Amino acid sequence: MPNESSRLGSVCVYCGSSDTVEPSYLTDAHAIGESFAKAGLKLVYGGGGVGLMGAAARGAHAAGGAVLGIIPSFLRGREQPFDDVETVIVETMHERKMLMFERSDAFVVLPGGIGTLEEIVELLSWRRLDLHQKPIVFHNPGGFWDPFFALIRHTVDLGLTPPSLLNAWRAVEKAEDVTPALLNWDGEIDVAGEPATLRQLT
């Protein structure tokens, strides 16, 4: 499979919108946004100025990167758009998710709650249906996403999901490894049959 990173111009971030989280999650989100800017990658996100969303957008913006926020009008009060960046106002969550998908060449998943779960399950479902082959990288600090990965593996073990879906993403623990995971995306199948992780960069 050709190297997907050669076509990367923009990266969508799915993540939580709560400020009442482990502080390191916010610090990491800011650093990841900053790393996108330094790599010349545009950040596409849910448009909010709070939580990990706001931290990632501020990190990218402060480093001089391009940022596109997409937010439904009914969430403007709750998620407080970050007005210093380009923001598109839509009417529904469906419009938001579709526009985020269409404007992005790859996806990064940071810690998040039920909304983030909804987004990533839909993204993986579309991958399962061969509707896209875009890179997907999870930031997995302290094994945050391990229960989700175990659930997907459970559905595979019961014959409800094809094993190939386990190769649809990479997972990295450290914030500084997220952008390299995107830029070194190789699309290779992990022969061990486990969710592929970042290859050693040497």
UniProtKB/TrEMBL annotation:
Any Pfam family hit: Lysine_decarbox
Reaction catalysis annotation: AMP + H2O = D-ribose 5-phosphate + adenine
Superkingdom, natural source: Bacteria
PANTHER family: LOG FAMILY PROTEIN YJL055W (PTHR31223:SF70)
GO terms under cellular component: cytosol
Family: Belongs to the LOG family.
Key words, A-Z: Cytokinin biosynthesis, Hydrolase
Keyword set includes Hydrolase: yes
Gene Ontology MF term list: AMP nucleosidase activity
Enzyme Commission no: 3.2.2.n1
GO biological process: cytokinin biosynthetic process
Protein name: Cytokinin riboside 5'-monophosphate phosphoribohydrolase
Keyword Hydrolase found: yes
